[in-house]
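User: Fold this, then the next.

Assistant: Folding the first:
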Amino acid sequence: SYAITQGTVALNTNYVLSYVGASLTITTRPVTITADPQTKIYGTADPALTYHITAGSLAFSDAFSGSLTRTAGENVGSYAITQGTVALSVNYALSFIGANLGITQASTVTAAGNSSAVFGDPSVALTASVFAMAPSLATVGEGTVTFTVKSGTTVIGAPVTSSTVSGGVASAAFSLSGVVVGSYFVEAVYNPGPNFLGSFDASPGTLTVSAAPTTSSVTVTPNPQQYSDPATFTATLSPASAGSPPLSPATSVTFRVGTQVMGTVPLTVVGGVLQGVLTAPLVGPEPTASPASPTGQMAPVAHTVTAEFGGVNPNFLVSNPTTTLTISREDARATYTGALFVSTSGTTSSQALITLSATIQDITATPDAAGDTTFGDIRNASVTFVNRDLSTDIATVPVNLVSAGDTKTGTALYNWSVDIGSSDAKQYTVGIRVNRYYTRDFSTDNTVVTVAKPFASGFITGGGYLVMSSSAGSHAGTPGLKNNFGFNVKFNKSGTNLQGNINTIIRGGGRVYQVKGNAMTSLVVDKIRPVATFNGKANLQDITDPLNPIALDGNATLQVAMTDSGEPGANDSLAVTVWDKTGALWFSSKWTGTRTARDQLGGGNLQVHNATTTTASAAAAISSASAEASGLPIAYALSAAYPNPFRGGTRFRLELPVASRVNMAVFDVQGRRVAGLLRGAVEAGRYDHAWDGRDGSGRDVARGVYFLGVDAVSLAGDRTFSMRKKLILVR
């Protein structure tokens, strides 16, 4: 209230002016403001809280002060907007009409994560990220996520829901029961809380179930093992199973040696792992169609053995393990079956062709098998004929089967050209070494072959037939059928060349074959008994159709041995052996398993005509036909020692044609006796001996050069023998 004064109010002097005052009252100016309603998205900042004058007005330049406020809270909802500190001066009567701030749900984005597991895992954690969309800056911490796993459009298993989303991340365990290896879609759907809107992934995540790892191994026992002997192959694979329901990583295993399949066996659970065991002989398909070119997977060297698992379940990673198997050579036995007596081509010739032949057997075909029943293919052997006197190889030749149905026994052949020089007779110590897949190199197999200048007037003739009973070879005669023959062999008048021929007919396998020999290389006729052997070359042909004979071989080797038991020939006996040009046994008239034996004639007659030899030494060399027939030596002989040089011991053979008094000992280089090996009377025969490098007291002697000495005198006193062989002992 303000006093009203006279101020400047006046009259002229003609008046007496009196003034009675009063008051001026100024009242407050009414103003009404109304708050503006506001909204925001959850997780964003508050908008500016505004208002406007809905009644009255401000005077002059007056203005409001302060700001509006709202009820506290950030969750979705409606919050009152209050006057807060908004005010005017005391000159105003300010009225406030409120409004509300509304918080709405934030939109979200859901992204399924990628997960991985190994087949057999019980479960896998599926994850997803849930983000609030701009402009919201909130971190999602409410609601859940439901995961669905699909293969294409097919739902796998049951959907799973996470616990409450925390920090924008959701996780749920998904059971892998029945889930196999593969890649799957993972769909994630956000189940919102009160402050967010739900969402799902635009691009599903991926669940990758990879194959379960396994551990595998393969072993072979025994190792090393001989060719053709059984070996046990063992493969293991773990784990034995995995997954729900449980699955096995494989069902079988195939064992290979190199490229050769040894066999396939099923896998069984043993001690918590899968195991496959196969016992199989180390033999193969070799020789193949070409015996000279075997596949070589059973060769006596180191080979890679592989276990190849079959029926492999794709839910597992299965590797094929390998190991190394060393195959050693199988034992063989060798029997010399070639010529023991060979004549030169004439009485004045020093040259001769020795038919060297041997029967080679897998040890399972011999009494030495000692329970070994698994055999190989003897064609995988080769034979080296050795000149033991000079310790040099004569030739190495292949081994061919005696019978196509028997791979345990084969023969080897080589025609050896020798020259005895100015001698009337010469002896050769021939050894046999078996090579390649088999091994044999023993002095006990040595044979002494005598080459001598022949009788000038000895000759043989004969004709008739044998009745086949145990013929052998690729063209063996059929039992019960006849093997006809006819021959005539002699030297020319001057004794310089052999003349004659042989013709024999063989019936076998429904075919008829003819062997014609007209190139004789050797004729040996005993000077005392009617026993003879001749060798030569022959032509072989199939004459089943007599109008169209078929040539089979033009360079076959022929050997015929006979005994003339007197007239009329009913007890005469004959042995015919033919080898083809490859050295394979083509025909044996009577096979014993290792050689051709003489067989009594079924009909006909043989005549062996003896004569006096041209020189005394030749006569001595080719005498004693009875010794030949009985297998006794024909002359004194001491083989070369083998091995030589040697370490642990060396072997050698002494051959006595007649009962003799023998002194065998080892001497040092000064002639002093080191060890006695044999002393006393000994019957005729072949005797194998050895020296182990010790003296007579059993003590090891020093390394160095020694001499093996043999002195023999026949008990009849008419024959003597003395021989020295050098021995080299190394330590």
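Now the next one, as you asked:
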Amino acid sequence: MRPRQIWFALMAISLAGPLQAQDTGIESTEKLLRQLADQYVPSEAAFAGYIAPRELLKRPGMELMPHEVIEAGGKRDLGFNPEVLDVIIVFGTMTEQGQPFAGMVMHASEPLKAASLFPPLASVTEDGTVAGKKFRRALDPTQPSYCLVDERTILFSPESSLKAMLEAKQTSPLRELLAKATLKNDVTVMATLEPLRGVITQLQRQASQLPPPFQPLLKIPDHIQHAQLTLSARDGVVARLALISQDEANAKELAKLLETARAFGKQAALMQLATQPKTDDEVELAGRKYMKRMIEAQSELLAPKVQGKRVELRYELDSGVATSGTMIALLLPALQTAREAARRAQSSNNLREIGLALHRHLAEHREFPAFATFDSDGKRLLSWRVRILPYLGQEQLYQEFHLDEPWDSAHNRKLISRMPGVFRSPHHASESAGETVYLAIRTESSLIGETPKKPADVTDGLSLTLLALEANADQAVPWTKPDDLYVSAEDPLAGIGAWNDGGTTTLMGDGTVHFVNADAETFRRMTTVNGAEPVEMRKAP
């Protein structure tokens, strides 16, 4: 399990736990929740979510949960049984530079042993000190570090956020909301928009080219001061989103905009339903009638309601439907699709960052890097992935390499486990630290080849020439090794397409990223810089 997987595992524990709490012990847990928030949630945070796992586990029926499996898995991957956690708080924000700022606070009902925490992180963290506290520093600064501040409290976040969590705090709108936090609901997420105004303004400008009917929707954040999302499952599932405006006039305007958004959503869903292929099958037609009825009914449930400065959206699902196997069967394909879409989006972002780094290298050196660095005798030393580290914000890591030694020298091998997160594919399940499936294309005339190439060398056009892609798991290589995906004329698609029904996420020479599902001949043509062959690229949705 890699650091990012542990981070997501902890997030899953905080959000996917059982719903519905009992009253026993609530008051003391609420007090603990407010104390932890006051002590560790930084003033810069814009949102925070919290849950009380042990309180939720007290409800009737929870004895049927697989406690043995949860305990065994937790001790193996986390170093403790996650069912001992009293409170989990997750917080975050986004800087105006678009960088995330996040952290997590966990408090256990029994003492924890620092030496046994997070076994999978042992090889990718080191001892350090921050704000006077000992902690385990992630070797990759983009990955989370952790600190056992006392025998029951763990802080889990990147080092920069960890420092802010341990330093003195100033008052802030979010911290004021957390000072009144309760456990009346099973899951609560609070947000204040003021720290995000700069980011929101940038996004609004970027979205200014939306069609005129959608333009008013860009003003929705302007009418919101803070928001609170709650989820409860006492007698069915009830989700509430409360949006607090500056005054009643803003609340009324916000409700109008939300009503417009609701109408657009309903119309889009009905239009999508109408695009289904024609059929004479009576069961299929009945299913479409049911879907239309459900779309209309669900849309009505989301009608905004105004009360003073408060606008509330409420969604309710009775317990009979919420717990039925039928509902689970209906939701499972959608969840699987959403999960794969998230993986594909993350992989696209990784390749986009790699592409930006390659083009920064191009801007400085007027050429793309060769696939490897070489010594005076022509021996391959290090991969192009090492060469672009300074352009990924990893100058310090780059300086630690012995650039005149091969990737597997005694010194350089120690750096393999410190692979930057941008080279980690969300699809690659290998536990081997330092392996990547983001590979350059290698042919006799590929863009990243034996010698550096200039844009003028790419007569086929940068936008139609493959630069790198996400390969299959069996193609994974140590990220520092000068090894990539060699494309053969006999079987050009070998080594790709395992993740998404034959398609793959690709980085083109112009820096754009596409999910491409091409036939073998088209793909082969895309691997050369000067083949002078027509290419009709099929970009999958």
